[in-house]
Every structure is written in structure tokens, then in C-alpha cells.
């Protein structure tokens, strides 16, 4: 296998779940958002919106809305991540973005079939750019699950996230507080036909 700077960055990236309190630098945030903008998008739609939130009080308010949202949210399947997210939301120390100092929320226009794909690619750009800058990152799904929660949407709308947009995903970003273990990769997931 060939190793170069990009490949090494891809292999070294891990999902961070413990961040320090230190905010990332403005230039770093700009770099992450620019990396997101340069992701591929279906028919070059670029219909996404990346909203970066670095205000602790606003993040905590969103955390409370997520906590409340999960109380009356009924998962539409038994995907373990969803069930775990709902169950853990009742914990006193609950924080869905792991107290990261920066949360980037990716939303997209409604009724666009590539909405999730485009935002996921943009998020991976963010994660890899973060890794290259010595920052930690983690994909956070909770706002997607609660994308139709009225209280949450009202507040996000006040922050400038259009109500008609679908919430695709979000990225927690910050300096790494604790390195994550490396989950093993499953065998049998590659198939080459020559
Ligand atoms: C679609 C998607 C949703 C995810 N949602 C969450 C999440 O809500 N919270 C979380 O801690 N990690 C989340 N993750 C991160 C995965 O748990 C992680 O990528 C996986 O365990 C592999 O670990 P690694 O990223 O360190 O290689 C998500 C990843 C993806 C691709």
C-alpha cells in the first residue's frame, strides 16, 4: 500500500470523544469550512449550509433542546446508535457534542435526494482537514435524528438555519483531550474483480 501525507491523514483520523476546553483558532475554523465547501456535490448543487457555533451558551441551550427532544422522540427503528442516544440523554451530565468548543451543523435544501451524501462528503473533508491541523473531530448524528423537533427547529431558525432545510449531520471539533482507541476494520468488506 502506498503511504503519503493524504493517505496517512486518512488512516490516522479517529473520532474524538474527549476535547479540551480551548477554542480552535479562527484560521483553523476558516480552513475547515473552506474544506467543506470544496467537497463534491451532486450536479455541483452546493445547496448546503455549514453553520459553525462557537458560543458556549448557545451550544448548551442546543444540548438542553436535544435532551428534551429525545424525551418525546420515538425512534423509527432499532438502530443501536439511536436507542443509545435516547437512553443517555436522561443522564445529568449529558452532552451530545462531547463539550467540543466548536460544532459545525450541515444542513441542506429540502427534497434534494443527494442532501445527505453531499453533506457527508463535506463532513469527511472537515474531519480530514481537522486531522491535518492537529485537531480532533467527531460525526454527531443527534441533530439529524431530531431534525423535525419543533422546539429545536425554532431555536435553530433564530440562529439563521432555515426551517425548511433538512439537518443532515454535524461535526464536533476541538483540541483532543484524550486519544480514541482505533476500532479494528472488519475483514471481508473489499471485493476486487479483475
Ligand atoms: C453516519 C455516522 C454517524 C455517526 N454518529 C455518531 C454520533 O452520533 N456520535 C459519535 O460519537 N460518533 C458517531 N459516529 C462516529 C462512528 O462511531 C465512528 O466513525 C466509528 O466508530 C469508527 O471510529 P473512527 O471514526 O475513530 O474510525 C458516526 C459516524 C457516522 C459515519
Automatic annotation (TrEMBL):
Protein name: Nitroreductase
InterPro entries listed in its UniProt record: Nitroreductase, Nitroreductase-like, Nitroreductase/BluB
UniProt GO MF annotations: oxidoreductase activity, acting on other nitrogenous compounds as donors, with NAD or NADP as acceptor
This protein's GO CC annotations: cytosol
Lineage: superkingdom: Bacteria
Coiled coil: none
GO biological process terms, semicolon-separated: 2,4,6-trinitrotoluene catabolic process
Pfam families referenced in this protein's UniProt entry, alphabetically: Nitroreductase
Keyword NAD carried by entry: yes
Keywords tagged on the record: NAD
Residue ranges constituting the Nitroreductase domain according to the UniProt record: 10-175
The keyword NAD belongs to this UniProt entry's keyword annotation: yes
